[in-house]
């Protein structure tokens, strides 16, 4: 029986052999932030042949959240009657006027929750307060938000709403492929999202755009195997849809979770950091659940985006640059004092690179911020 180290060596050997058959350099995108973090932590990134490049994609929910949404949250959180419930990663993301963490230090009632139903229970126990849940995330977390709305309806709660900001992965992939400045040869598709939407959801990316899509797990061996399959497709000139995670991801996805989403939400336009407003890339509440929409209840509207000066998170999450090419990386912007969301989030590319690749980059390229990555 082979050890994990021996299996990794074998996969790497096959990847090097495959890379030698490529007609030129290739660029594969890890759509999921968890893939990026685990690939950096395990050293998979550093094992890539020179002509095989891995770049981050818009798969970190916090990182793709537009700054204007953070501003709307802060505006809500500062209202005396509102209790703002949010997942922990959102606390430190900066808007134009600071973060939720800063707003909380100034008196705003901002509470971190670990589930949507925790927010519903909060509203049930505190009928005099208006509980607003920050509904951020991809298809992975949307079913839980839908379940919370249905629970609030069943309990006839008049003091629970969500501020919707859910995103859909496939429209983002389409937008990236339509941009002539972004050269992507294949996608390492997100495992968690794929559990919900199913492997067949990526079929259009392969057939319409001619780009390989490989679904892989999150262990180092699974990530390396996914990259190997993408490289083999590129070498053969045959883009395919391959599911290397069949024990978790089925062709059709999770029917119950999808049914929950479809019961409560309808696709709508959504603002993304760096990608702008994309049609049909978000989830809006259906009219029958409109009373649970915090935008409507509180008359909140989103303004314009004004990203922090010098922050290049938008370019990082679209694969245009790698984190150390941002002049703020590792100096002005660190996990302790983050400026952009890619350094704030535990799934952010910048935080992953700072923790696991910073020293490697210094050895190879000198000080952070001066690494030239081939295009």
Characterization of this structure:
- α6 packs parallel to α7.
- The protein contains 17 helices and 13 strands.
- The chain has helices at 4-19, 33-42, 61-64, 67-77, 100-105, 116-125, 142-154, 169-178, 191-197, 203-209, 220-236, 255-264, 294-298, 313-316, 341-344, 349-356, 358-365; strands spanning 26-30, 52-56, 82-86, 94-95, 98-99, 110-112, 130-137, 160-166, 186-189, 212-215, 241-243, 265-272, 276-285.
- β12 (265-272) and β13 (276-285) form a beta hairpin.
- Residues 363-375 have low confidence and may be disordered.
- The two termini are 40 Å apart.
- The chain is an alpha/beta fold and 375 residues long.
- A 5-stranded parallel beta sheet has the order 2-1-9-10-11. It has a 4-stranded parallel beta sheet with strand order 6-3-7-8, sandwiched between helices.
- The protein folds into 2 domains: 24-312, HypD, alpha/beta domain 2 (Rossmann fold, 3-Layer(aba) Sandwich), CATH 3.40.50; 313-358, no CATH class.
List keywords for this structure.
5-stranded parallel beta sheet, disordered C terminus, 375 residues, Rossmann fold, 4-stranded parallel beta sheet, alpha/beta, 2 domains
Write the layout of secondary structure elements.
Blueprint: H1 4-19, E1 26-30, H2 33-42, E2 52-56, H3 61-64, H4 67-77, E3 82-86, E4 94-95, E5 98-99, H5 100-105, E6 110-112, H6 116-125, E7 130-137, H7 142-154, E8 160-166, H8 169-178, E9 186-189, H9 191-197, H10 203-209, E10 212-215, H11 220-236, E11 241-243, H12 255-264, E12 265-272, E13 276-285, H13 294-298, H14 313-316, H15 341-344, H16 349-356, H17 358-365
Parallel strand pairs: 1-2, 1-9, 3-6, 3-7, 7-8, 9-10, 10-11
Antiparallel strand pairs: 4-5, 12-13
């Amino acid at each position: 029986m082979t050890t994990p180290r021996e299996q990794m060596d074998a996969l790497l050997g096959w990847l090097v052999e495959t890379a030698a058959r490529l007609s030129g350099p290739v660029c594969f995108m890890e759509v999921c932030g968890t893939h990026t973090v685990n690939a950096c932590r395990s050293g998979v990134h550093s094992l890539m042949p020179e002509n095989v490049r891995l770049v981050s994609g818009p798969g970190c929910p916090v990182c793709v959240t537009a700054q204007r949404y953070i501003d709307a949250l802060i505006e809500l959180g500062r209202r005396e009657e509102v209790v703002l419930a949010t997942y922990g990663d959102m606390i430190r993301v900066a808007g134009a006027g600071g973060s939720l963490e800063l707003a909380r230090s100034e008196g705003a009632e901002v509470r971190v929750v670990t589930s949507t139903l925790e927010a519903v229970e909060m509203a049930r126990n505190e009928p005099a307060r208006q509980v607003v849940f920050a509904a951020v995330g991809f298809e992975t977390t949307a079913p839980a938000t839908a379940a919370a709305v249905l629970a609030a309806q069943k309990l006839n709660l008049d003091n629970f709403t969500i501020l919707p900001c859910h995103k859909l992965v496939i429209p983002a992939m389409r937008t990236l492929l339509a941009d002539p400045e972004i050269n992507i040869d294949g996608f390492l598709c997100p495992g968690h999202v794929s559990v919900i939407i199913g492997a067949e959801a990526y079929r259009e990316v392969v057939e319409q755009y001619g780009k390989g899509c490989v679904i892989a797990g999150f262990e180092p061996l699974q990530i390396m195997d996914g990259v190997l399959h993408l490289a083999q497709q590129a070498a053969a000139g045959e883009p395919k849809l391959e599911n290397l995670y069949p024990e978790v991801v089925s062709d059709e996805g999770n029917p119950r979770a999808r049914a929950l989403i479809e019961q409560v939400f309808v696709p709508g336009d959504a603002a993304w950091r760096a990608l702008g407003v994309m049609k049909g890339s978000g989830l809006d509440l259906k009219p029958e659940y409109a009373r649970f929409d915090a935008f409507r209840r509180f008359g909140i509207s989103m303004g314009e985006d004004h990203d922090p000066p010098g922050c290049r998170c938008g370019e990082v999450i679209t694969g245009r640059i790698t984190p150390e090419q941002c002049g703020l990386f590792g100096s002005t912007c660190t996990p302790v004092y983050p400026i952009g969301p890619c350094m704030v989030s535990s799934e952010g590319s910048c935080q992953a690179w700072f923790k696991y690749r910073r020293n490697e980059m210094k050895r190879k390229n000198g000080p952070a911020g001066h690494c030239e990555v081939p295009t």
